[in-house]
Amino acid sequence: MPDIPDSEQLLRQATREIERRDAEILLAAAWRLTRAQLLSRAGEPVPAEVAERFAASWPRRASGTPVAYLLGQREFWSMSFEVSPAVLVPRPETELLVERILHLLRAPSAEVADMGTGSGAIAIAIAHERPGWRVIGSDVSPDALAIARRNGERLVAGRVEWRCGDWYAPLAGRRFDALVSNPPYIAAQDPALLEDGVRCEPRLALTPGGDGLGALHTLINGAPDHLKPAGWLALEHGAMQGAPVRAALVARGFAHVTSHRDLAGHERVTEAQWPTP
User: Fold this and answer.
1) Percentage of residues in the chain with pLDDT exceeding 90?
2) Using one digit for the tens of pLDDT, what is the confidence trace for 189-238?
């Protein structure tokens, strides 16, 4: 009768190819445990069906599939979001966008649009914090929008309106107190597109091609037609793109142009206000 492997044996096998933390997360998920519960069972025999599920998952992680895709979920703003290869994996630095919008707008009612919403993380986080606000989330990808809708119904039922279309097309004729977006901003030839995890994410959501600034310029140039007087535009961008984004905003006529750094110290979010007449 073959020996029944214990948790440490399985983890040692997997960590020849993947990081220990990832292996622990995947084994815990296969065992329907939290990571803390798994660690408390160190050395315990692992049921055969759990070992099989784990054996099916960690080689996919070794090939570059993000842990979030393997689990089908990722935490953002202390909420669990469904994710799949149809959407970007929400990242901690994007929470800075949510923080800035909540800081800039203090009124009990406001209208906010999140363009390129992906999993809906930004729109849902804003709606969760401000129940009195009207929030729209839009995306050009029907598959991404389907995931955003499911996340919205589970986390903030009925409080986000979802629209399909490219950038400002779904917002025709509307003006907002704030526009927010984490658009594709990686340059087409940037080696980051080949990095672990990233290469499995939807390319359309990662790069607009060229120097990576195309989508940012589209958002900046179109924003005045969709902002109320004194309305705000807040954009996530690459660590080295703060200066050109600020320059484009100033050239377009925005005021109070300011960049903010993420926890790693990189310029990550730039905001600007459309002046009153």
Assistant:
1) 95
2) 999 999 988 999 999 999 999 999 999 999 999 999 999 999 999 999 99
- What HEC string does the chain produce? CCCCCEHHHHHHHHCCCCCHHHHHHHHHHHCCCCHHHHHHCCCCECCHHHHHHHHHHHHHHHCCCCHHHHHCEEEECCEEEECCCCCCCCCHHHHHHHHHHHHHCCCCCCEEEEECCCCCHHHHHHHHHCCCCEEEEEECCHHHHHHHHHHHHHHCCCCEEEEECCCCHHHCCCCEEEEEECCCCCCCCCHHHHCCCHHHCCHHHCCCCCCCCHHHHHHHHHHHHHEEEEEEEEEECCCCCHHHHHHHHHHHCCEEEEEEECCCCCEEEEEEECCCC
Whole-structure pTM value: 0.93
Q: Where are the domains of the chain?
A: 7-63, 85-273
CATH topology of domain 85-273: Rossmann fold (3.40.50)
